[in-house]
Amino acid sequence: MQPFHYLLIACAALWAGTPVQGQKLEMGELGAPDSLQEANSIVVAYDVEYRITSLNAATIAYRKVVTLLNDEAPNGRQLYESYSDDSKIISFKAAAFDAFGQQTFKARNSDIADRPAISQASFYEDNRVKHLEVPCSSYPCTLVLEVEKKVADFTFVAGLPHWQPVHRGQSLVEASFTVHVPATNELLFRSNQLPEPAITTEGSDRVYRWAVSNLPAQPREAVAPAESATLPYLRIALADFEVEGYSGSYRNWTDFGNFIGQIMEGRDRLPDHLAHEVQATIAAATTEREKIDRLYRLMQARMRYVSIQLGLGGWQPFSAAYVEENRFGDCKALS
Question: What is the pTM of this model?
Answer without folding.
Answer: 0.82
